[in-house]
Write a structure and sequence with these properties.
2 copies of one chain form a homodimer. With about 375 residues, the first copy, chain A, is α/β, with parallel strands linked by helices. Chain A has 2 domains: about 220 residues, Alanine racemase (TIM Barrel, Alpha-Beta Barrel); about 120 residues, Lyase, Ornithine Decarboxylase, Chain A, domain 1, CATH 2.40.37. Chain A is built from 10 helices and 18 strands. In chain A, the strands form 2 sheets. In chain A, strands 1, 10, 11, 12, 13, 14, 15, 16, 17 and 18 form a 10-stranded mixed beta sheet that branches. An 8-stranded parallel beta sheet of chain A has the order 2-9-8-7-6-5-4-3. The radius of gyration of chain A is 22 Å and the shape is elongated. At the A-B interface, strand 10 and helix 9 of A face strand 10 and helix 9 of B.
């Protein structure tokens, strides 16, 4: 395309194509080794072009968070989409319109809502694939597996005419708060144990549990140690970010997404101001048990493989990032840096387009087609 | 348009048209009373339709943060745009293209950059309007007014062929960290005093300082007490938000922007989950000296004038908001709430379109035309 990262207007979100492909292949290889299906969550990239690469590498389909996203991916020809989200029955017309075109499944975590969905689907003469969301410790959505009623509730859901019960699904979001590798491993083990125990109880009373689905990038590396899992749904791994580095899921050199930014002010010898603010990077903090803070790491010279030279962003305004530097630091106004952000999923949600790069050369422009499709 | 807030897919960003107009009129009346020009910052709404309302009410023009925004507003016919941003000279071609169509001005906070701009402009046979950004305590961009060199530097800038020096500009962003009304008032007073003193010094040596420009919504209410100011540039006031309420700049009833959201899960009697997460509300915290925390206030029944019934959002995932409620709280899955967010400027930056409402009825759809134009 002729342009390189020194000539484009900044800030700009770029994807290292080589790393992206390596990340896609590595996670697929891990799933294959563990004997589980990989169904990546597309919320990270929101880009049909990247979903296609994941499917070409062996993924059985994708996940979307919201119906609006699923509609974009269905339009782009992705044929099997799971929404691990408690989609409300007021959206039935949109779900049915998707059923006309693709295979779609959702989660339920309420018997009442399951009954409502079943009644709607019966009236339309169809069935809706559902999985029951199980709370494995994140305490967001999901049925509580420790209550005595849970097996009875799932039994009723599995028997509802108008639904087709597929199995159990969980998301160990609390993995992002793990304070050590050991704690992360325990969270993954406990997630698998809870789901396996519940699946056994259900199978014992004759309920077919075809799918036992887990998913998060930080727990994905323990998949081979887990028992009874049929599907994994990591999303962030395509790009990684500073939080995944902090959680031991990736090295800085694995991060495929970065933000190219320009030094726009150096009002004092020890302070630089970059043109990427919270409207590019978001205010999401960094997590992980490796010590880290701030709003992203800026690498002078656009080289994120030289972490010794990196600069921590200390504060963000909407369109400015501020960092302290030694008074003799060589960065000057007009110089460019590469920022590895704290959280890549929310960064893509602010970008209309991702620039694919090979080194410093721009090789492709990929629209974030499902950006902002949050309803 | 027929639809109301109970029938649209959620989450959705809505603007109360009556409050928007009241906010625009109130700030214009304040500027007029104080005898200063109002040049609102458009970063909050990023919508030419709203900029037009501000200009129709008496604003002399607008501010944009980035050239990309200015290009959108210029396309929409806004004829006078100031960028209180240290635009780098590598963007000269875009600045000159804007000069062909509208009146545009930028800030500089570096003598070196000012010389670079001047050289570029001389070669093109034009002049660029600039203001010098002064650091009044926020310590982001801006020349340090306490250094002995500052007057000499501004004298040189004002004399550069290729530039047309207009005056001084500041942004007291540290007002957002004020811990009391008194501290806020002191920040505003100090900002005005610093600029006035510098303007007097410059005028004493024969430099014309036509413009002395300040701007932030929390300090705007002190404009009538400030001396020597010619222009104010608040942005957030069109919508307000929880932070402005916390800083005493608005009441909850003044907040024109809110997010309509649906309860999608109630996995435990004391926990509700809403469908608006950080990809709608952002992770921006709340500020202000009134005690507040969390990620926004949710009002059942879509009525944000009944704050006794509000629920604080405790945590956000990308597509979920989680809040604790009393076990007997009447909210049920499928019910809708109105969320007043912490920071409205970043919420519009995630929305393609704003729904204008009159009560619960949708009366207009306004594109956020400059959303994502961050470069």
């Amino acid at each position: 395309m002729g342009a390189d990262l020194f000539s484009i207007p900044t800030p700009r979100v770029v994807i290292d194509r080589t790393r992206l492909h390596a990340n896609i292949d590595a996670m697929q290889a891990r799933a294959t080794r563990a004997g589980v299906r990989l169904r990546p969550h597309a919320k990270t990239h929101k880009s049909p072009a990247i979903a296609r690469k994941q499917i070409d590498a062996g993924a059985v389909g994708i996940c979307c968070a919201k119906l609006g996203e699923a509609e974009v991916f269905a339009d782009a020809g992705i044929a099997d989409i799971r929404l691990p989200y408690p989609v409300h029955p007021s959206n039935a017309a949109r779900v049915q319109a998707l059923q006309d075109r693709i295979r779609i499944s959702i989660i339920v975590d309420s018997l009442e809502v399951a009954r409502e969905w079943a009644a709607i689907m019966r009236r339309s003469g169809r069935a809706l694939e559902v999985l029951v969301k199980v709370d494995v410790g994140f305490h967001r959505c999901g049925v509580n597996p420790d209550t005595p009623e849970v097996v009875d509730a799932i039994r009723e859901i599995a028997g509802l005419d108008g639904l087709r019960f597929r199995g159990l699904l969980s998301h160990a979001g609390h993995a992002y708060h793990a304070r050590s590798e050991r704690e992360l491993q325990d969270i993954a083990a406990r997630e698998a144990a809870i789901l396996h125990q519940l699946a056994v109880q259900l199978r014992d009373i004759g309920i077919a549990v075809e799918e036992v689905s887990v998913g998060s990038t930080p727990t994905a590396r323990f998949i081979e140690e887990q028992h009874g899992i049929t599907e994994m749904r990591p999303g962030n791994y395509v790009f990684f970010d500073r939080t995944q580095v902090g959680l031991g899921a990736a090295a800085v050199g694995d991060c495929a997404l970065s933000v190219i930014s320009t030094v726009v002010s150096r009002p004092a010898p020890d302070r630089i101001v970059l043109d990427a603010g919270s409207k590019t990077l978001t205010s999401d903090g960094v997590r992980g048990f490796s010590p880290a803070s701030g709003h992203g790491m800026a690498f002078p010279g656009l080289d994120a493989t030289a972490p010794d030279g990196s600069i921590a962003i200390e504060r963000l305004s909407e369109e400015h990032a501020v960092a302290s530097v030694p008074a003799d630091h060589p960065l000057r106004i007009g110089d460019r840096v590469r920022i590895v952000p704290n959280h890549s999923c929310v960064v893509t949600n602010l970008a209309d387009e991702l620039l694919f790069v090979d080194g410093l050369s721009i090789v492709d422009r990929v629209p974030v087609a499902a950006r902002g499709r949050n309803s």
